[in-house]
Design brief:
Blueprint: H1 8-16, H2 22-30, H3 34-57, E1 64-68, H4 75-88, E2 92-97, H5 126-137, E3 142-148, E4 153-161, E5 167-172, E6 190-196, E7 201-202, E8 208-209, H6 211-226, H7 231-248, E9 258-261, H8 267-280, H9 289-299, H10 317-320
Parallel strand pairs: 1-5, 1-6, 2-5, 6-9
Antiparallel strand pairs: 3-4, 7-8
Length: about 325
Amino acid sequence: MTYERYTIHDYATIEERRMHTMPFINKMIEKGLAAEMILVTEAMQEKRLAAIAETIAADDMKKVVLLAGPSSSGKTSTSKRLCIQLMTCHKHPVALSMDNWYVNRADTPLDENGKPDYETIYSVDLALFNHDLAELIAGKEIELPTYNFVTGKREYNGERLRLDKDMILVIEGIHALNPMVSEQIPQENKYKIYAAPMSPISLDGEKWVPTTVNRLLRRISRDFQTRGRSPQQTIAEWPSVRRGEDKWIIPFMKDADTVFDTSMLYELAALRQKAEPMLLAVPHDAEEYDIVERLIWFLRCFTPIDINQIPITSLLREFVGGSIFDAK
């Protein structure tokens, strides 16, 4: 079979065989099949989420879904898309973010260098989080907190929640699988998901693009757009983020009931349009420039895709903007 004969059906076969190669991706784009590649990638992820939702819905004891994963894995979009699939199973999901249970910024633990450690499990108010979960499972009403990232303080704005029949909590956060965050909840009431990019892209059948590159490019794009952070700032804090993942997140992957692969076959081609201009603006004398140069090299291996082709429900929209889940 030659590239000239590729059709959408041929693509599905290759995807099933996990032949994630840069030449194949570029040829699909150059042959005008970018839209088909995007739609099949999205459909396969949605199919997997639907299967997970059906498993959860089939067990009436499951009241809390805990979804964790390392930075920039797409946890927020995954949790909201899972909620939609649970609705098709006649459940009433409620999506919550563990970020809202952060301790006040002034109380954030310090790392070995005396700087605030936002990656540690102790950046979460564990006592309050466990108390609120236990109250909800017991059928009681609680007032939900909201973390104000501008003031660095937890606030209460009168939003209240009680779990009724067929309601399921879907809670996402980097520490969601750590047993300390839900130790008061019986195991039979929990369903745990580990979400992260799992399928690296091969450049030539032997060399691969590490999935950490995908995540860093996602984070650079998101932080620049939503937090006004430069690529240098994001890159500078990346080693601390990775150390926190190795200590507090990845060890609990083994405890998950299932794993959800958030890799997107076309994402580096799409991220190129967003991330490359940001990276090219970094001064050559910046401390982070060696990493910037490496990221640009990876991006330029891929023919760019117009991000307007990406569905507004896509996980990737969390990082390039325009997600329907951000709509107010």
